[in-house]
Write a structure and sequence with these properties.
Length: 185
């Protein structure tokens, strides 16, 4: 059966600003964090809200600050999706084994333990692919990117970088006009 699914990001809300190195502008910039609700959809019908995510964009160029890294994250995403697929197969095999009491992959007389072994094999394969993808993702940063990023001074919190209003409090400054937290770390 063709199952069309995916996710929507709904109800965007600007929540915070912070200093960040923009790989597109190649300069320190103010990044704006937008929080959205991630909702899984099945045949384009939203069915399940799963998480809140905050996406950061550069206030100068509008791109995600890490957009120009050497290894795009989308390449590792494919591996992660495949790992998730293997994990789903593993769960499917486990459920089928428990329901039928035999190995669902074997013709006729497969024993239950073989079904469990097959499910475990797929689970281990899924884990290996996921580990590989996450390791590549960590290495995806350009050499020197981490250093240059850490060298960006944090926002002072004296004034809102979006509207310029002066902030009254230095601890957890928040601009009431822009409705954003000003992150100073
Ligand atoms: Zn930029
Ligand atoms: Zn403001």
């Amino acid at each position: 059966m063709l199952l069309l699914h995916g996710h929507y990001k709904l109800f965007p809300r600007r929540v915070a600003v912070r200093a960040e190195w923009c790989t597109v502008c190649k300069a320190p910039r103010v990044a704006v964090g937008t929080r959205r609700l991630v909702v899984l959809h099945l045949f384009w019908i939203p069915v399940l809200p799963v998480a809140r995510v905050t996406d950061w964009t550069c206030s100068s160029c509008g791109a995600p600050p890490a957009a120009r890294l050497a290894t795009p994250r989308s390449r590792t995403r494919g591996i992660l999706v495949f790992a998730a697929f293997l994990g789903a197969v593993s769960v499917g095999l486990l459920v089928a084994t428990l329901l039928t009491g035999r190995d669902p992959l074997a013709e006729g007389e497969g024993r239950m333990s073989e079904g469990f072994a097959a499910a475990a094999t797929f689970l281990v394969m899924s884990g290996i692919f996921a580990w590989h993808a996450l390791r590549r993702r960590r290495q995806a940063a350009d050499p020197g990117f981490v250093e240059v990023r850490e060298a960006v001074p944090p926002l002072s919190g004296d004034a809102c970088p979006l509207c310029g209003d002066l902030m009254l409090t230095r601890s957890n400054p928040r601009c009431p006009r822009c409705q954003v937290d000003i992150l100073t770390f």
